[in-house]
Design a protein that fits this description.
4-stranded mixed beta sheet; single chain; alpha/beta; 3 helices; globular; 2,3-Dihydroxybiphenyl 1,2-Dioxygenase, domain 1; 39% strand
């Protein structure tokens, strides 16, 4: 079997909030949208934002930040420090820039408004 990644779907509390976040900060294009769904073109794959079912939302406090084990990695074509500083100026929570020995990339993690982790990756 040969496979190709087409879409990653994140279940979210506020589709509109996260759609705006990813469009404004990463220049992703909206392909589809309705009140419970948005599909964003992220280059080689799509990111789907699907509203969490109401039966689950009733149990979640309004200011709850999700803790999950998914990270979306965005390759960038600009200086990683400048990219990080731009996001920080927009009040996006960002971590320190890092790399590893014999690893050809600079990395910087951040979180979206619902706590989903993303990473900026820039070739050295």
């Amino acid at each position: 079997m040969n496979v190709q990644l087409s879409t990653i779907i994140l279940y979210v509390k506020d589709v509109q909030l996260l759609k705006i976040f990813y469009v404004e900060n990463f220049n992703l294009k909206v392909i589809e949208e309705d009140p419970v769904w948005a599909l964003l073109d992220a280059g080689g794959a799509y990111i789907g934002l699907h509203k969490i079912g109401d039966q689950y939302l009733e149990e979640i406090e309004a200011d709850h930040i999700f803790d999950n084990n998914t990270k979306i990695v965005f390759d960038i074509d600009m200086d990683i420090e400048a990219a990080k500083n731009d996001l920080v100026s927009k009040k996006v929570k960002m971590r320190d820039i890092k790399t590893f020995q014999d690893y050809p990339f600079w990395l910087c993690d951040g979180t979206d408004p619902e706590g989903n982790v993303f990473q900026l990756r820039r070739k050295k």
